[in-house]
Design brief:
Length: 83
């Protein structure tokens, strides 16, 4: 199984806000978040990763997909601008 960088939407240590509570129901951001979390299968992405035992942890494909979908929905298609 691929090794991903840890993320937690309920994190309160480094940031004084809970990210999960910042996504307002009924918005495009909320729809993208729910769609990717509940409907998208990431197994095809996991097959390509080979960092089970060695290598740096990868970013979770779900997080990356959310970023890309949100950027594309706002008309941002340049990877440099998305960064």
């Amino acid at each position: 199984m691929p090794h991903y960088k840890y993320y937690d939407y309920n994190q309160t240590v480094m940031i004084a806000i809970e990210l999960e509570k910042q996504i307002i129901p009924g918005t495009l951001e909320y729809a993208i978040h729910r769609l990717v979390e509940e409907r998208v299968k990431i197994e095809p992405f996991e097959k390509k990763l080979k960092n089970d035992e060695t290598g740096r942890p990868a970013y979770d494909p779900k997080v990356m997909l959310k970023i890309i979908l949100l950027a594309y929905s706002k008309g941002i298609i340049s990877s440099r601008k998305i960064e």
